[in-house]
Amino acid sequence: MLNQEEIKKIIPQRDPFLMIDEVEQYVPGESCTAYKKVREEEYYFKGHFPGNPIMPGVLIVESLAQTGAVAILSMEENKGKNALFGGIDKLRFKKQVVPGDVLKLEVKIIKRKGPIGIGEAIATVDGKLAVKGELTFAIV
Length: 140
Description:
alpha+beta, Thiol Ester Dehydrase, Chain A, six-stranded antiparallel beta sheet
């Protein structure tokens, strides 16, 4: 397990935009499994939506992107670099994510060519699919 301080040694995101709490396992250049505990005091719940807090889908996707970034940026040749979005494909939202949920975030790198790659990304809550899609990244 990696905690947030150890994650910060791999990816550049910081509070309030570091969207993963811990990494269960990762294989540099291949895959990563991480977790995000969705807390009631998250800044975005004040406006999304008052009285009916739902984690914004774009932030779930960002959590998945950061999970994939751990896999890619942990490679020796990518240390100190950044992974940027290049595209989002085949993305589907299947379940609302609310305070108290724990997101399991899994990204498997399925294609790489030079600084560009694609990760298959899946987010679940209690084994139920919340989000699934493909994330294209560019290493800069």
